[in-house]
Amino acid sequence: MLGQMQDWPLLVSRFLEHANVNHPNSEIVSQLPEGGEFRYNYRGLSERAKKCAQALTRLGAGSGDRVATMAWNSHRHMEIWFGASGMGAVTHTVNPRLFPEQLVYIINHAEDKILMLDISFVPLIEKIASQLKTVEKYVILVGKDHMPDTSLEGALCYEELIEAESGDYSWPSFDENTACSLCYTSGTTGNPKGVLYSHRSNFLHTLVALSGDTLGVGARTTIMPVVPMFHANAWGIPYAAAGAGAKLVLNGPIHDPETLHTIMLKEGVTITAAVPTIWLGMLKHLEATGQDCGKLSVVMIGGSAAPRSMIETFQNKYGVRVNHAWGMTETSPLGSLGTENQAICDLPEDVKLDIQCKQGRPVLGVEMCVQDEDGNELPRDGKSSGRLLVRGPWIIKSYFKNEGGEALDDDNWFDTGDVSCIDEYGYMQITDRAKDVIKSGGEWISSIDLENAAVGHPSVAEAAVIGIFHPKWDERPLLVVVPEKGATVSHAEMNEFLMDKVAKWWLPDDLAIVTELPHTATGKISKKDLRAEFKDYSFPKA
Ligand code: ADP
C-alpha cells in the first residue's frame, strides 16, 4: 500500500522560492572581485536567479547541459547556482586553484558548454582557452564598466545579460533525481574525478545541515562560508542559508584574516566555516591585535583535522564553539560533526575537548563503519582502526562517466580512503589517509596526530609528517616543520615537546626545517609532493 501524501519533487529551486516568499528582506552581502561591495536580499537573489536562468536558456543551455563557474563566493555565483540548476542544467563548480592541465582535463571531461568566470580568472582561462573543446560561450561576471579587454572569443558581460531579461519566469518541475551540480575531487591520486549531485541529494543534505545538531543555520543566523563555493558545495551552506532565510555574507576573493575579521564584525557574523589554515591566520590576527570575535558563536572547521590548540583557543579565549566536521566531495560533503550527544555532555571538559578533536558523529542520513582489510567490521572501542566506509542518500554511487569503475562494494559501502576508528560514544576519529599512514614494525603511526601535536609548539607555524624508509622498521616518521618567523626549533626540543602527547615509539626519527610546505588545490598539505621532495632523504645513522 502506498502513502497518500503529495509528490513534491525535492528540487533546490524550492529553497530560493521559500526564501523569496518567507524571508524576502533577509540580507545577502557580497564582496566583489572587481572591488567594492554589493548588498541585496533574497527577493533580489530570486529575481536575478530567474533572469540568469532566462539568459542561460537564451545562450543555448538546456536540461542536463553543464554550466561551469569559476568564481569566488559572491551573489552572482549564488544566482548561477540557483539559475542554472533551477532550470535543469548542471552547475559545474570549477576549482581555480587547480593546475592549468587539470583545469583543461576537467572542463573537457565535464563537456562544459558555458563557462562563467570572475574577472580574476580571465588571464588563467585565456591561456588554456585554445585547449577547451566544448565551451561555446564565456560569460564574465562583471558589469559593463569593468568588462576587460580579453582574447576570450565572444566574451559576454554578465550584467548585460541579466539586464536584458524580464525575470518573468517560473522554476520548472522535474524529477528530483535529475543531476543538479558537479564537482571534481582534487585528484590527490590520478586524474580528478567528477561527483554528480542530484537535486534530491542536495535537498536532503540541506535539511540535515539545517538541524541544530549539524550546521544549526536558522532564520536568525548570519553565516559567512569562507569555504569556497567551488570546494565541496561550500559544505552546503549556500542552500542551507536560503532554506533558513539566514543573512548570508559572501567574502568574494578576500581571505586575509584582517579583512575577514573586519567583515565578520561589521556584518555581525554568528556562524562561519573554513579549513584550519584560515583559522590559524585568524587566531594569530586576534592575538596580535587583541580584538574579539564579535557576535560569532560557532566556527565550523573541517577539510583537515582541527588541532586541539585551535579548538581550545576559540572556545576558552574567545567563547566561540568549534564544530569539527568531516566530509569529502564524495559525501556532499557532510558526513560527521562533533556536536555533543547525551553520552558525553556531562563528561569533564578536558575529556570533551579530546572528543572534539575527533571528527564527530555521523549526521542523520549517513551510515558509517570501520572495517579491517578482510572486510570485518571493527568494534566501536575508540582503538580499533581500519578503513572508514560510508553510505547514504548523499554519498556517491559512481563517479561521473563511471570513471574509476565501481565505487561501492556489494553492501553499497563507499570506501573513503580514510583510516579511522569509532569510539563507544559514537564519535569517529580519522587517524590518517590510507596512503599517508606510517607503517612502523607492523604497527600504524598516525601522521595526523603527530602533526596536530607538533603545531601546538609555539615555534611551529606549520608541520607535516611523512613515512621514510627504515631498514629495521620499514618506515619511520620524519617531521617537516615551517618555523614561525624568526624562530628556530631542534629535533631534540620537538621530541621533548611531543613526549607526553603521543606514544613514545611514535616520536619522529628526525626533523627537517623548510621555508614552506606544498599544498593541494584545496589548501591541504600535499603529502604526495612532500614525499617526492624527500624521496632521496635517509635518516642519519644512529
Ligand atoms: P581532496 O582533499 O582529495 O580534494 P576532499 O576535499 O573531498 O578531497 O577531502 C576529503 C578528505 O579530507 C577526507 O577524506 C579526509 O581525509 C580529509 N578530511 C576532511 N575533513 C577532515 C577532518 N575534520 N579531519 C581530518 N581529515 C579531514
CATH homology-level superfamily of the domain at 436-533: ANL, C-terminal domain
Percent of residues in beta strands? 15-25%
- Counted beta strands: 25
What proportion of the residues is helical, as a percent range? 25-40%
Shape by Cα distribution: globular
**Gyration radius from CA atoms, angstroms:** 23 Å
CATH topology of the domain at 436-533: GMP Synthetase, Chain A, domain 3
Kindly report the spatial arrangement of strands forming the biggest sheet: 2-1-11-10-12-13-14-15-16
Q: What molecules are bound to this protein? A: adenosine-5'-diphosphate
Q: State the CATH architecture of the domain at 436-533.
A: 2-Layer Sandwich
The biggest beta sheet is recorded as: 9 strands, mixed
The CATH C-level name of the domain at 436-533 is: Alpha Beta
What separation lies between the terminal Cα atoms? 74 Å
Low-confidence stretches: none
